[in-house]
Specification:
Two copies of one chain form a homodimer.
Chain A lengths: L6 H19 L4 E2 L4 E2 L2 E7 L6 H16 L4 E6 L1 H7 L4 H12 L4 E6 L3 E4 L16 E10 L8 E9 L3 H17 L1 H7 L3 E2 L10 E2 L1 H19 L4 E2 L5 E3 L1 H6 L1 H4 L7 E2 L5 E4 L4 H9 L10 E10 L15 E11 L4 H19 L4 E7 L12 H18 L3 E5 L8 E7 L5 E10 L2 H4 L4 E2 L5 E2 L2 E10 H11 L13 E5 L5 H13 L4 E3 L6 H10 L4 E5 L1 H6 L1 E6 L3 E7 H13 L4
Parallel strand pairs in A: 11-15, 17-18, 24-25, 24-26
Antiparallel strand pairs in A: 1-3, 2-3, 3-8, 4-5, 5-6, 7-8, 9-10, 12-14, 13-14, 15-16, 16-23, 17-19, 19-20, 20-23, 21-22, 26-27, 27-28
Chain lengths: 583, 583
């Protein structure tokens, strides 16, 4: 029965049925590819006139009919010559066939009954019997470039979701509807936080003032959290000669680097895709003594990664990532104190955002594959025991992933579950015995000997952009007061109260509260609705009564009408709520 | 007599005499080029064993002898073939000859008596009689790549200074000695503010914590100055598709852009050399009403310019420039208010740094060349009259430069004279009628019509890096308290006072004072000297007496011993001095 069939096979088979339904209605459609994805599948089409939502309904109905037809899926090998004949009208398939032939890969053809065939590596149900016709749904259409590249034609991608049972589908669709309401790309626009520009390029968000203010609140919060614990800021440029990445070893291995800038008569320059090598250079540029260690360098700085344009998404998958990066240079016996300091910071940060549901992945080396790892085995032992102990001591939910350590050291990953139950990887702590060796980092120990420090990488938010995306969705754009780009908006009931409104506005600004004042040329009702849509925590209304009494009528975003309050008391109330980071 | 001869000719002739003296002592030396520069000249040599300071003395003595020899300078035209014979042992000259031949340029040979000849376009004294032998000096040797490119061999560059009279030379050398003491490249290293890295590349400084803190103080100060006047922060990425610069017109014209990053199957990407186009995109991305204007967007963001590596110098000429950039989008009748707001800011900033000696250049269009300029003549008239009026109203020293306006609008430049009398261009205010047109910027006016806003560009510091270089030299590294990366250092007389010292240190830190605490394992005298070398404003010494009395012995960087003071009073004193920005 359907419940027992492999969900991957069901989803993949549905992609074929979708293509069959599309070709049935629009025989001239050119087929792209149709893989499975998380929770479902998609198929890319070049349809001369595009598709309408009505089309989706037709395709869905037809697919259900096909499922009822008990169609058999079967595969057979194909020579390139034969394949070219079969797909002679399908230009994208012909492109794939050529590539397969060039790489001497075997082509296979999968048939769905007698109604459809596709170039495909397989992974299907044996019979459409195995598919529950009530447990799938075509959800939406989106544009997608052929092979993810914007120099290629743009295709129409039809997305579908599919599960084993109708209940699972319904639960998923409900969660998804909620996720759509919270979609940070939608809210980012509505709340005027950021925009994307065709002329600047994909994955490169530009932030409006409200977004820039939110960025700054986040970044300054992390800076403050760090500096009160003895972390020191540094500043590094966004580019470097390739030479730096030869030393670090990234030049050959790191494949999402932007291509080089080739200067005439000079070395090639690169945009930095990570900060570590620049941090290492700063440490290496001056001699160090054991008395100075640990040295805790931190920088909030943007790196650039050439993620595929097809994989970019709003703020959560970008090409410009601003990292709250830090590198601690420590002696081995300082590792425990340093890790604990980092855990303190992570705890303080997650508390401030109200993130209660998180787990820690402890990645350690695989003792069966000792040859995979570099560095002193004594430091490995010490590091891994330390990581395990400190996490256990805190009683945090965690799992140990043997063999998941990097070749240069063990690490901790913090995975946060948001209000919709989706998991996001946030903070990372990574021990490193590789870069200190490659950059020949040294310190003079108390015995007068040159020794190599351990480096600990650490990010708390991960990247400002991605963290903002997560925050927007987690809070559905209704940020806690301490994060809200605009904390209060002052509305005068009519023109004659505008002066008093302005006075109150100036008081709020003077106290460091992020406030706005509206003109009174729209109705009060309209202005209140507008402020509510902007999810502003405090809407402050003033009329005759308030002007006479030196008070304000307070309407809170979630608590509703809070009545009249003296303006002084209001200021104190707002300042305290922000300072205490009340969620 | 020498006093009347053209100083340029004197300097150029001295460069030839230097080359003659070098060849006399080291006949195998290969000659590079020898131009005049500000205050003197240099000549580049490839000397197999380099030069010593002793050599410079010899060369100088020999040059004086040659001057006494009343040598005649004479020029003659040369064919490439002849030139190749004359310079057959001079590989760099041969390279130049080839280039001249290729470009069909006339070659000329200049002779100095019978003792020396050089490939040279001329500009010499007629007779060495015209040179005052006591009014020049060879100053130093530096490495320089042949033709300024680091793929070419490194040469030895000998620098000389020369004037008409000995008095002028002496005055200059005195000023220069003071400038050398203040050289920000020297102090930047001694005070551990920043470093350069061979592996990262020239013109790309990396900042140590003290430098990063100074950067932040400067940048946050400007942010604060702006935001209290209604400026709003934005954030933009450091790269863009070339498309953006096609619209702005920079792609063809701007020649210090880094070369493109060529992505496979995507448009070319560029590092931004300026921020304007990104700012324009943000404004253009949403509709605007006259009610919103003026919109004042600001961002402190790094741009990258491919300055020639030979022209880079410390922080004052870099490839990574962090601009305190701002673009105001305004209606024509808002220009005056906006310019005045900018002048208020500039005045407040210069006051805070104690910059009293500055002048303003007002660049206006040339009425005789009307065809050179774009934009509405009415806005030109309004803008130029406004600029003149506001500057006059303030009574600021200024001059009007007719014809110096950009083709798209008039501007103000602020030129500051530092403590050594050197002039530095700092702030700029530039009207722009070009970018609003190119980016089709619009607002809906009160009459319901679409109109084009005026853009006003403005930077106060110019760039963080360059401004830091200027500040370091102006203050000789002894920054006013509000700027000092470390404001106070606490020294315990001996180990038994360390606890009290630590308590004081924590109090200072808690009050937001940038303090350091030293270990007491060095002698007090040594620690005081070390703190003085670091130019730390307050050295706070504590021993028995201070511990018992809850006091501190204060030693001020410039005022010297200030006696004992209660620790509370000290905190208040330091905080007030920083808040008031006492210079």
């Amino acid at each position: 029965m359907a419940e027992n069939a492999n969900l991957e096979n069901i989803r993949h088979s549905l992609a074929h049925l979708l293509a069959a339904a599309v070709l049935k209605k629009y025989p001239k459609t050119k087929l792209g590819i149709g893989p499975t994805i998380e929770n479902g599948f998609y198929y890319d089409f070049l349809a001369p006139d595009g598709f309408t939502p009505e089309d989706l309904k037709d395709f869905e109905r037809d697919m259900k009919k096909m499922i009822g037809g008990r169609l058999v899926f079967s595969g057979e090998k194909l020579t390139p010559a034969k394949a070219k004949t079969v797909f002679k009208n399908q230009k994208f398939k012909l492109e794939l066939i050529k590539e397969f032939a060039k790489e001497k890969k075997q082509l296979t053809l999968y048939k769905t009954g007698e109604i459809f065939h596709d170039l495909c590596r397989g992974g299907h149900v044996e019979n459409t019997l195995e598919i529950n016709p009530d447990a799938f749904k075509l959800t939406h259409i989106a544009g997608a470039y052929w092979r993810g590249s914007d120099v290629n034609p743009q295709l129409q991608r039809i997305y579908g979701v599919a599960f084993a049972t109708k209940e699972e589908l319904d639960t998923y669709l409900k969660m998804r509807a909620e996720a759509e309401k919270r979609d940070h790309r939608k809210l980012g626009k509505e709340l005027q936080l950021y925009t994307m520009s065709e002329e600047v390029g994909p994955g490169l968000p530009l932030f409006y003032p409200k977004g820039a203010i939110l960025r700054r609140i986040l970044e300054n919060f992390i800076i403050e959290i760090q500096e009160k614990r003895g972390y020191l800021p540094i500043w590094i440029p966004h580019i470097t000669k390739g030479e730096l990445y030869k030393i670090s070893g990234h030049l050959d291995k790191y494949d999402t680097m932007f291509p080089p800038m080739k200067l005439k008569n000079e070395a090639d320059y690169f945009l930095k895709p990570m900060n570590c090598p620049h941090f290492m250079m700063l440490y290496a540029s001056i001699p160090h003594s054991y008395k100075e260690l640990p040295i805790r360098y931190t920088s909030t700085t943007t790196v650039y990664r050439r993620e595929k344009s097809g994989e970019l998404s709003g703020l959560t998958r970008v090409r410009s990532l601003t990292q709250d990066d830090c590198h601690v240079f420590a002696m081995p016996d300082q590792i425990e104190t340093e890790i604990n300091l980092m855990l303190d910071m992570i705890q303080e940060v997650y508390n401030a955002f109200g993130f209660k549901d998180f787990r820690v992945g402890v990645s350690v080396h695989d003792p069966k594959e000792k040859e995979k790892y570099i560095g002193d085995p004594k430091i490995w032992k010490l590091s891994e025991e330390t990581l395990m102990r400190v996490i256990k001591n805190r009683g945090w939910k965690h799992q140990v992933d043997v063999g998941e350590a990097a070749f240069y050291g063990p690490k901790l990953d913090f995975i946060f579950k948001d209000v919709l139950g989706r998991e996001w990887q946030l903070s990372t702590i990574q021990l490193d015995m590789n870069l200190p060796a490659r950059f020949k980092l040294k310190y003079i120990d108390s015995d007068g000997m040159e020794k190599q420090p351990v480096v600990i990488h650490r990010a708390i938010l991960g990247s400002t952009e991605r963290f903002m995306g997560i925050l927007i969705e987690h809070f559905a754009g209704a940020f806690p007061l301490w994060l809200a780009p605009i904390q209060a908006r002052v509305l005068a009931i009519s023109e004659k109260h505008q002066d008093y409104a302005k006075k109150l506005f100036e008081e709020l600004k003077g106290a460091g509260i992020r406030a706005e004042l509206t003109e009174s040329n729209e109705t009060l009702g309209k202005r209140i609705r507008e402020a509510q849509l902007q999810k502003i925590p405090y809407i402050l209304v003033v009329g005759d009564k308030e002007k006479q009494g030196g008070t304000v009528a307070v309407r809170h975003r979630t608590h509703g009408d809070e009545g009249e309050i003296k303006s002084d008391a209001l200021l104190q109330k707002i300042l305290k709520e922000a300072r205490d980071k009340i969620i």
